[in-house]
Amino acid sequence: MMKARRVSLIGLVLIGILVLPAEVRGQQRPPIADQIAQIYGFGSFGQVDAIRYTFTLDGGPKLKLHRTWIWEPKKDQITFEGKDKAGKDVKVTYVRSQLASQDAFVKEVVDPGFFNDQYWLLLPFHLVWDAGPTIADAGMQKLPLGKGKARKVVMTYPSTGGYLPGDTWALFVGKDNRIHEIEFHHGGNAKPSKVVANWTAYKKAGPLLFSLDHHGKADGKPFRLTFTNVAVKLAGSDAWVEAK
């Protein structure tokens, strides 16, 4: 696991703790946490050699992000394609265990960006992967955006240490154990302090289920976050399996 430290991002400061794809939590969690993760393919994650995706955020004229990633979890290797600080196109490949030897751009921009983007893509798996948060089943609650109710599962990170000190993610889950909406509250002073978004456009790539479209409000202002170009590469094959 990464050494605990706080990272700030350009744009949405929503960063998860990335750990190896295995169960590491020492504390107990409610059964619904594992049930949600399994619906999204957690039990088959070991078959995945690589995940490819493009993250696009539209939070208004001053907040637009577009970057493409390939994560090879077994190699602990990440490939980034996007813009550098000067706005020029760049492509970077690095191994996370060797992050200390990378330049400032990779340490301060690329790697934090990877944490942010994969957290949104793989949020259900963090219910099992992350060792720090407390997870509670709050029962049926009113949806923050839509009409009706859903089962509310709350993931609260400790107030110190890690990448999300004091932050809270509330997942609103349907009878199918799929996430329908989320409500995020920042534990610190970073902005946005509150994000509410839906979880739509579900597609499968190999054994994994992804939600590819999230739109809602960040501190009351409209925003939309989408994933495109999503695919996985399974063990024993060099072919990409596209999300469909």
Question: How much beta, percentage-wise?
Answer: 35-45%
What is the element string, with H for helices and E for strands? HEEEEHHEEEEEEEEE
Number of strands: 13
Number of helices: 3
Instruction: Give start-end ranges of low-pLDDT stretches.
Output: 1-26
How many strands, which pairing sense, and closed or not: the largest β-sheet?
A: 13 strands, antiparallel
Straight-line distance between termini: 32 Å
pLDDT averaged residue by residue = 87
Q: Globular, elongated, flat, extended or rod-shaped: what is the shape?
A: globular
Structural class: mainly beta
* Gyration radius, rounded: 17 Å
State the share of residues found in helices, binned by percent: 10-25%
SSE topology:
Layout: H1 31-39, E1 48-58, E2 64-72, E3 77-83, E4 89-95, H2 104-121, H3 123-129, E5 134-142, E6 149-156, E7 168-173, E8 179-185, E9 194-198, E10 200-205, E11 208-218, E12 221-234, E13 240-242
Antiparallel strand pairs: 1-2, 1-12, 2-3, 3-4, 5-6, 6-7, 7-8, 8-9, 9-11, 10-11, 11-12, 12-13
